[in-house]
Amino acid sequence: MRQCQIGFLFAVLLVMMTRDLSAQDMIQHVDLSSPDMTDAEFTRDGVVALVAAASGTQRADFSGKKLNGLDLSDLDLSGVNFRAARLNNAKLKNSLLEGAIFDQAWMLMVDLSGANLKGAHFFQSQLMGATLDGANLTGARVAADLSRSSMKGVRLARADLSADMRNQSMGLMRGVLVSADLEGADLSHANLARVNLEFANLRGAILSGANPMSAELGGADLTGADVTDANFNNADVDSTKLIGLRGAERSTLNAARNLSGAIRD
To answer: What is the helix (H) or strand (E) element at residue 121, kind and residue range?
Structure first.
């Protein structure tokens, strides 16, 4: 099982390095089988103790720490700093992570299903193959790689996944959800400008009031999605399934690129 997991991590890193994600490829030549990416320097009890010892104003700080493979499910980790931490294969199911910081963290195949991540911050974070089914990321900042992640029923209402146009010298920092499963997700009023959603499953998703302006939606499946008041200006919908859309007449879908190549009713 361990070898299979490592093999998968190598595969997803290869996919990442062959796309235009140099800005989000924080470590150019990473050995994903190294202790830095597989070991943990704490136990669950050790994490609980440090969180309990932190004062109300000074949250626990695990920045740069190795927490790979730990089961941290059902814990209150609100506001905790996980900047540049290693959380590959960790479990944080149903944990309270409101306002937590995950900037530049490695979280390959992490399990965040059912977690409360309202207002959390993910910038240059690597979550390929992660599980976030039913997680709540309302109002979160997510300029992270979530390719091939499972995000069924995830709540991203008012979340900001858009490209950070202030850091162009570092490349395009944005949400990358290539082949992610977002079936039934709530993306209402989310900022999806320039986000990469190629081949994503958005069947039945709520995109009302969302802003996918200039987003990459090629090959994505939006069957039955609610796009009321969504801004599709300059979004690429080549080979995108736009079947049974709700509220399409109140969106700017006609201003999308490659609309003639989309699959429509």
So the answer is: strand 121-126
How is residue 72 written in tokens?
Answer: 């941290």
Q: Give the bridge partners for 211, in sequence order.
A: 191
Distance CA 204, CA 30 (A): 37
DSSP secondary structure string for all residues of 130-178: -B-TT-B-TT-EEEEE-TT-B-TT-B-TT-B---BGGGGGG--B--B-T
**Token reading at 209:** 């009031």
Would you say 226 and 246 are in contact if contact means Cβ atoms under 8 Å apart?
A: yes
* Paired tokens of 91: 């479990």
In this structure, are residues 16 and 147 in contact, taking their beta carbons and an 8 Å threshold? yes
Biggest CA pair distance of the chain: 59
- The one-letter code for the residue type at 151 is M
Q: Are 77 and 100 in contact (CB under 8 A)?
A: yes
Is the distance from CB of 230 to CB of 192 less than 8 angstroms? Answer: no
Neighbours of 11 (CB within 10 A): 14
| pTM score of the predicted model | 0.89
Report the distance separating Cα 127 and Cα 29, nearest Å.
Answer: 17
pLDDT tens, residue by residue, 68-89? 999 999 999 999 999 999 999 9
Integer Cα distance of 221 and 263 in angstroms: 9
Q: Which amino acid is at 228?
A: T
What kind and span of H or E run contains 242?
Answer: strand 241-242
pLDDT tens-place string over residues 123-144: 999 999 999 999 999 999 999 9
Q: Are 162 and 140 in contact (CB under 8 A)?
A: no
